[in-house]
TrEMBL record:
Lineage: Bacteria, Bacillati, Actinomycetota, Actinomycetes, Micrococcales
Keywords, in A-Z order: Acyltransferase, Transferase
The organism of origin for this protein: Branchiibius hedensis
Domain of life: Bacteria
Enzyme class: transferase
GO biological process: fatty acid biosynthetic process
Stored SUPFAM superfamilies: FabD/lysophospholipase-like, Probable ACP-binding domain of malonyl-CoA ACP transacylase
UniProt name for this protein: [acyl-carrier-protein] S-malonyltransferase
Amino acid sequence: MSYLALFSGQGSQRPGMGRELVALSTAAATTYELAGDVLGIDLLRAAENRHGELSRPEIVQPVITTFGLAAIAAVRQWTGLAHAVALGHSLGEVVALSASGAIEAADAIALARCRGEAMGRCEPGAMAVVFGLGHATVDDVCAGDAGEVAVATRNLTGQCTISGAVAAVERVCAEVARLDATTHMLPITVAAHSPLMRDAVLPLRAMVESIPVQTSTVPVISCVDGEVITDERDVRDRVVGALLEPVDWPLAVARAVAHGQRPAVELGAGSVLRDLVRALVDGVEAVSVGADGLPAVQAIVAPTRQPSGDSRQLAAAGLRLVASTPSTVEMTAAQLERGKHCLSALRNLLTAGPQDGTARAASADEAVELTVEVMSFKGYAAEVTRKRLSASVGGRA
């Protein structure tokens, strides 16, 4: 079984995003290493948001792009399957194109930084969500401030986002409120998909024209008009045009599903796209890598590849525990090397095939002992590790 790949845009970021993904997948870890080489910064550390990095477009856009590319690499490692159709929301379209072979991963990460830098240099603005009013009506209200505010995204029937100059957005919010709509101002100053992004077009165009692109290997559906993005010229024009043009998510999802209904997987840290697809498509199975985890993705996309429950759950819990727990002592070189071996063995348990009762019990024991060993290198007693591991899997350690 293949799946529909959904790639999140700005707004999907979460502090700490990527840590668990890297712990559970060597393919994801490789993607983050590539990003570090391209950008010269550690995106996992940046995603900790200790100094507000996730509010800076020149950082958060590469963070989101790298997470999406790492997530799809991890899903392929866990399931053995590639996606059949791709769809990205705003920035996510760049990630969708890269994951589908149109743009090299390194170029997509650099492009995301360029896009974020260009948008960050534009005039500050505002964005707000409007609930309970038809898109056409909101369009008409925005027309009163033509060139200053516009509908940026159409998410669901009766729900859209407006974007533009602060005063114009506030005026539209006040006017639609008189029409019984509800509004919510978003805590951002970059007015995406609005006329204020005009000054970002030229630098992004220069970047897009400087990198090699090609036709994607699987269909990528435009989030603007629902059409399949075709050749190299179309790829370049779409990436630049999306700065100003509104997202029509219901149309894009409908066109993607028309290629064959299949499970949908959000390759992002949040769950907004998963929930929107569930609301738009009756009966669809949808899951998020960030919100639901790789085991949940595997269960829907490739159920026959799932290893036995206890060993998989214990291995996943062990990797999460190791990734989220700081060292209390300095590890020796030998311990670091042995720790890498243990983590690799835990990852192998996650992707092992079905087992009989005896093998299942042995794998579960192995997952516990591997976790205990690594945690001992970090300064934690075996009893403490066993208790924490047991608590995380409901007493099965």
